[in-house]
Specification:
By secondary structure, this protein is of the alpha+beta class. The protein contains eight helices and five strands. Helices cover 50% and strands 10% of the residues.
């Protein structure tokens, strides 16, 4: 009986999510298409219903506003869905929260006060109640956190001008894996959206710098670092309170580290 109730609740959640996505697509897509057409006025390329370029690979040369860049990020994530990396229901929720937290970053290349003037419109277009700049996600292992971070960061590097992103992982192996995933997903976005790849300025095991298409100041940087977690066991403390502190073997400490600290911290700096 409990499993049936849980399955029913999960089905209701999925149904409500699909319905909300359908409503958003039918109400917001025409407005997004019109805004995209207005921004691309004078260009010879045609625009598909999804707001993507239908002609040969090209480079964007004109300045876009924050709304265009946010829509561009959504298009990049949808492109990754079509490339065999279809996101789960929870990963889509993660990305929606990430985008809401990063909304201010999309307007930082515009004039002073641009974000403040656009704040109300941002909430209305995306159906948000507020813009929180912090996101905390806690899930079990093998839940798609690493892939979801890589997908979002690749889309962010593609869509957001002059962005700088830092990722902190539990170890060097994971941090290098994350950066490799970001580079791979960026290549998939270029191919799927038929856009010429951005020029790579610097690339190593911890950092990727690319030149964006919106001027000389459009340099986009992503860094992936290992965070060090130290477990200090003081001999002085152990000597005076052996009966209060249970002895922990190295194997147990290693297992606890990998069970409870497998998280990724995503930060943005201006």
């Amino acid at each position: 009986m409990r499993s049936f109730v849980a399955a029913s609740d999960q089905y209701a959640i999925q149904f409500n999510y699909n319905q909300s996505m359908h409503d958003r697509a039918t109400t917001l897509m025409p407005a997004c298409q019109l805004r995209l057409l207005n921004h691309t006025a004078g260009r010879k390329s045609t625009i598909s219903e999804a707001g993507e370029s239908c002609d040969q690979p090209q480079t964007l040369t004109t300045t876009r506003d924050g709304f265009f860049h946010m829509q561009r990020l959504r298009e990049a994530l949808n492109a990754l869905d079509r490339c065999g990396w279809k996101r789960s229901y929870h990963q889509r929720q993660f990305h929606e929260d990430y985008l809401r937290a990063c909304a201010r970053v999309f307007f930082k290349t515009e004039g002073p006060g641009s974000f403040e003037r656009a704040h109300k419109r941002i909430l209305e277009i995306n159906g948000w109640e507020a813009l929180q700049q912090e996101v905390l996600i806690s899930t079990p292992r093998r839940f798609g956190k690493t892939i979801s971070i890589s997908l979002f960061c690749a889309a962010l590097m593609f869509a957001c001008p002059a962005c700088e992103c830092s990722i902190y992982s539990t170890c060097k192996r994971i941090s290098q894996k994350l950066l490799r995933n970001v580079c791979k997903f960026l290549d998939l976005i270029y191919t799927e959206m038929k856009v010429a790849p951005f020029r790579v300025l610097r690339k190593n095991q911890e950092e990727l710098q690319i030149a964006g298409p919106e001027g000389q100041s459009d340099m986009r940087v992503i860094s992936s670092y290992p965070s060090k977690v130290h477990h200090s066991h003081s001999p002085h403390t152990t000597h005076h309170a052996p009966h209060h502190t249970p002895r922990t073997t190295p194997h147990t400490t290693h297992h606890t580290h990998h069970t409870h600290t497998h998280t990724h911290t995503l930060t943005h700096t201006h």
